[in-house]
Specification:
Elements: H1 5-13, E1 14-15, E2 25-27, H2 30-40, E3 43-49, H3 54-62, H4 67-76, E4 77-83, H5 89-95, E5 103-107, E6 113-118, H6 123-133, H7 136-148, H8 154-164, H9 172-182, H10 189-198, H11 205-211, H12 214-221, H13 223-239, H14 245-255, H15 260-272, H16 279-293, H17 297-308, H18 315-327, H19 329-332, H20 336-348, H21 352-369, H22 372-393
Parallel strand pairs: 2-4, 3-4
Antiparallel strand pairs: 1-2, 3-5, 5-6
Helix pairs in contact: 4-6, 7-8, 8-9, 10-11, 10-12, 12-13, 13-14, 14-15, 15-16, 16-17, 17-20, 18-20, 20-21, 20-22, 21-22
Length: 394
C-alpha cells in the first residue's frame, strides 16, 4: 500500500476516536490545522480544553460521538483539540480571552476569531452555533473588527482583501493599501497573487511590479496568464483616447522588455499618422523603425529612395541611413540596386571618392549580370562624379 507524505502526516497528527466515529481533531497542532484549512478553504473549529476539565470530557464522550455532529464538523471544518494550559495553549487563551472551559472557537486560517462560546453544549446548540459561524457576514464582521483594532498581519489582510473586494463604497482600497504597506516581500507567493488579483490599471504600483518581475510572476501564476494579462491591460490603455502618445511609448517600452522599443515605434508611427505630419517627420519615424525593428530589404531600399528624393531632408538622417546600409552590407551582397543607392547617398553627402567606389563596383556587377539598364545608369553616375571632381579642382 502506498501512502503520500500528507497521508502519513495526517495519521500522525490526527486523533480519531472510535476509529473514525468522532470528530477528527488535530491534537495540539495549530500549524497543521492552519495548513489544512488553507488548502481546503475551511474554518478551524477549536475545542479548547484541559486535562482536569470535566465538561470537556463530557463533550467528547456525550456529544462529539453522535453521527450528526462528527459528520457535520468533519465535512465543514478543520478541527483542532487544544490544551489551553500546555504549549501554545496559554498564548491562544490570552489572545482570545478563553477564561472558561471548555472554550470553543471558530478561526479563519489567518487566525481571525469568527465566533466563540464556552461551556457544555447540547447537540442542537453546538450545531446551531457552528452553522452560525459559517455565514459570510460573521467572517466579514470578524475581519472588520480585527482591522479596526489595528491588526496589520499580511496573511490576515490578504484574506480580508479577497473577502471584501470589490466593495461598492470603495472601502476595500484601505485594505489593499494596508496589505501593500505591511507585506515585507512583494515577490512572495502571497504578494504575487495579491498583485495579480488586485491591479486595476496600468498606471499603478501593482501593474509595474508585475511587468518588472515577469519571470517571478510566471512561476506562480503561469506565463500564458501573465502575458495575456499584460496584453489586455496595455491594449486597453492604448485605446483610451486620454492616453498621450508619450505615455503609450513609455508603457510599451516597460511592459515588453524584449521588443518594447520596436512596439513603441510602431505605435508612434500609427498615432502620428492619425494627424498631419510633414514628409521629414514621416521619414524620421520610418528610419527609426527600420533601425530598431528591422525591415525587408525591399522596404529598406524604398525608404532610401524616398529620403534621396527629398531635397530638404537633414543630412544627419541621410548619414543614419547610410550607417544602416553599412550594417546590412552582408544582406546587400550583390544587389546592384543597393550599390546605386549607396553611391547616391555618398554623392549627396559630398563623399565623391566613396560614391565613385560604389558606382564602379555596381558597374562591375551590372556587366556580370548583363543588366544593360543599370550598366548605363552606373556609367552616367561615374561621368557625373568625374565632372564634379574636375569642378572642385578647378
Amino acid at each position: 500500500m502506498r501512502f503520500t507524505l500528507f497521508s502519513i502526516f495526517l495519521c500522525c497528527s490526527l486523533v480519531v476516536l472510535g476509529q473514525g466515529q468522532d470528530i477528527q481533531f488535530f491534537d495540539n497542532d495549530l500549524s497543521g490545522a492552519i495548513q489544512q484549512a488553507q488548502q481546503e478553504d475551511k474554518l478551524i473549529f477549536v475545542h479548547g480544553n484541559a486535562t482536569w476539565c470535566v465538561p470537556c470530557r463530557l463533550m467528547e464522550e456525550e456529544v462529539f460521538i453522535y453521527p450528526e455532529v462528527y459528520s457535520f464538523f468533519n465535512e465543514h471544518f478543520v478541527n483542532l483539540s487544544l490544551d489551553l494550559e500546555k504549549g501554545i495553549g496559554p498564548i491562544l487563551a490570552a489572545r482570545y480571552q478563553a477564561n472558561v472551559l471548555p472554550y470553543f472557537m471558530f478561526l479563519t486560517s489567518d487566525e481571525t476569531l469568527v465566533h466563540a462560546f464556552h461551556g457544555f453544549q447540547s447537540i442542537d446548540n453546538l450545531l446551531a452555533r457552528a452553522k452560525e459561524s459559517m455565514t459570510e457576514e460573521r467572517k466579514l464582521t470578524a475581519w472588520e473588527r480585527r482591522f479596526e483594532d489595528g491588526d496589520r498581519k499580511p496573511a490576515f489582510l490578504y484574506n480580508y482583501a479577497f473577502a471584501i473586494y470589490p466593495s461598492s463604497d470603495g472601502s476595500h482600497q484601505k485594505i489593499l493599501d494596508a496589505f501593500m504597506e505591511a507585506n515585507p516581500d512583494p515577490l512572495s507567493e502571497m504578494g504575487i497573487r495579491f498583485a495579480y488579483n488586485f491591479m486595476q490599471e496600468v498606471d499603478s504600483e501593482l501593474f509595474y511590479l508585475m511587468v518588472d518581475n515577469q519571470e517571478e510572476f510566471a512561476r506562480v501564476i503561469g506565463q500564458e496568464k501573465i502575458s495575456r494579462t499584460i496584453d489586455l491591460m496595455v491594449e486597453q490603455a492604448l485605446q483610451d483616447k486620454s492616453t498621450a502618445v508619450e505615455e503609450g511609448i513609455k508603457l510599451l517600452q516597460r511592459a515588453y522588455p524584449a521588443d518594447g522599443q520596436c512596439r513603441s515605434i510602431k505605435y508612434e508611427i500609427a498615432k502620428r499618422g492619425e494627424t498631419v505630419i510633414d514628409e521629414t517627420a514621416r521619414l524620421t519615424l520610418a528610419l527609426k523603425e527600420a533601425s530598431v525593428c528591422g525591415s525587408g530589404m525591399e522596404e529598406f531600399r524604398v525608404l532610401g529612395e524616398a529620403m534621396l528624393s527629398n531635397p530638404n531632408l537633414d543630412e544627419d538622417l541621410l548619414r543614419q541611413y547610410n550607417k544602416l546600409l553599412v550594417q546590412h552590407q552582408s544582406e546587400v551582397g550583390t544587389d546592384i540596386n543597393f550599390h546605386m543607392l549607396r553611391g547616391q547617398l555618398s554623392e549627396q553627402l559630398g563623399d565623391l571618392g566613396g560614391s565613385m567606389e560604389r558606382y564602379r563596383e555596381g558597374l562591375r556587377l551590372a556587366k556580370t549580370s548583363k543588366n544593360k539598364v543599370m550598366r548605363r545608369g552606373f556609367k552616367d553616375a561615374i561621368k557625373r562624379i568625374k565632372r564634379k571632381g574636375k569642378r572642385q579642382k578647378g
